[in-house]
Structure formats: structure tokens, C-alpha cells
Specification:
Shape: globular
Structural class: alpha/beta
Strand content: 5-15%
Order of helices and strands: HHEHEEEEHHH
Distance between the termini: 56 Å
Radius of gyration: 21 Å
Number of helices: 6
Number of strands: 5
Length: 192
């Protein structure tokens, strides 16, 4: 047994009471990201670029909340949403990732108001999202975003390309990490 379950002999009021430090240490095992290009190729490029623009707006400009619907049932939504969000976070410079707050499943868009990105249940209709951006990966519907010409600008295309090219993504992230260390003013990037 790794943990003691009988605490009857433990005297909480004793000055000699202390935690047992003899438990074995377990190394942290990060979950594999998977192939981001395969995840992205599942969806229409225009819809993915719209989602990229929305995510970049949240990360670099504190943009509007993002609500998205995936083509899966509610039982799979959390896992599929985590894969998608993980892919998008993988291209964001390390120092900016803390700006991404997300929920991988909600049935109430008003729940978790501090979270900027929310995967929503199939039951929700797009007209419930008037104060944010709604992206339906099932129908490629995008509501609450600027025109396509804004989305097609260089930053979105560049970050989209990083989803497809792992080696370039890794080089970019290492470069940005070194650049931020050398020039701390880069810590707060923006969309301009």
C-alpha cells in the first residue's frame, strides 16, 4: 500500500506530528500531443483559420470569448476539444500560453465566465452566442468574426502553417523563447 489509511494513531495536536515524506516519487508524464497536421486536416481550412484568428485574438489582444462545436457527440466532446485546443496551443510562444483559458465541455455558455474558449454541446444553437465568436466545425459556420480578408492576413497564415510543419514550429518556438530572454519587451506581443 502506497498510502496509510488508518490514522487513528496520528495525534494532530502533538508538536511532533508531521507528514510522512517516505512516499515514492512519480515522474510527471505529459500526454502526447499527437500529429497536429492530422487533427487540422480533419476540418475545412477556412474554418481552422477562423478559429486560429479567434485564438490569436484571445492570446494577443484579449479578444471576445470563443464558443465552438465539433462533429462528435457529447461523450467524446471533451477529448476531441482537448486535442484541437492542444494543437492550437502548440504553435503559441511559450510565454503567451498562459493567456489561453479554456473549457473542453459545457452545456451552459454562461458557466465559467473567466474562460475564453469553450467547447459547447451539440444542443446549443449559434444564436445563443451574441457576445462572442461562434465556430461550428460541423457546418463550417462562423459567426461574430471580421471578414475573410482580415482572417487571411499574414499572422493567421503563418500560425496555420506551424500547425502543418512540426519542424518549423519547433524552430519558431525555440527562437521566440530565446528572443524573449534576450529582449523582455517581446513578452507582450500583439496582433500588429
Amino acid at each position: 500500500d502506497m498510502f496509510v489509511t488508518d490514522i487513528s494513531s496520528f495525534d494532530l495536536m502533538s508538536s511532533k506530528a508531521a507528514a510522512t515524506r517516505e512516499y515514492p516519487e512519480k515522474q510527471y508524464e505529459s500526454a502526447p500531443l499527437g500529429n497536429t497536421s492530422e487533427i487540422i486536416k480533419t476540418y475545412a481550412p477556412e474554418t481552422v483559420k477562423s478559429f486560429m484568428f479567434a485564438v490569436l485574438s484571445v492570446v494577443f489582444a484579449k479578444g471576445k470569448p470563443i464558443y465552438f462545436k465539433l462533429p462528435c457527440d457529447d461523450k467524446q466532446l471533451s477529448e476531441e476539444a482537448l486535442k484541437l485546443i492542444g494543437a492550437f496551443i502548440s504553435v503559441i510562444p511559450f510565454n503567451m500560453r498562459e493567456n489561453v483559458s479554456f473549457v473542453t465541455y459545457t452545456t451552459d455558455v454562461l458557466q465559467y465566465p473567466q474562460m475564453k474558449i469553450k467547447a459547447v454541446s451539440e444542443a446549443y444553437l449559434e444564436n445563443n452566442f451574441s457576445k462572442g465568436i461562434f465556430i461550428d466545425f460541423c457546418t463550417d459556420l462562423v459567426v461574430g468574426m471580421p471578414a475573410d480578408d482580415v482572417i487571411a492576413k499574414a499572422p493567421v497564415n503563418f500560425f496555420y502553417s506551424l500547425l502543418l510543419e512540426e519542424s518549423i514550429r519547433d524552430e519558431f518556438l525555440l527562437f521566440m523563447n530565446d528572443a524573449v530572454k534576450a529582449m523582455p519587451t517581446l513578452e507582450k506581443l500583439n496582433m500588429k
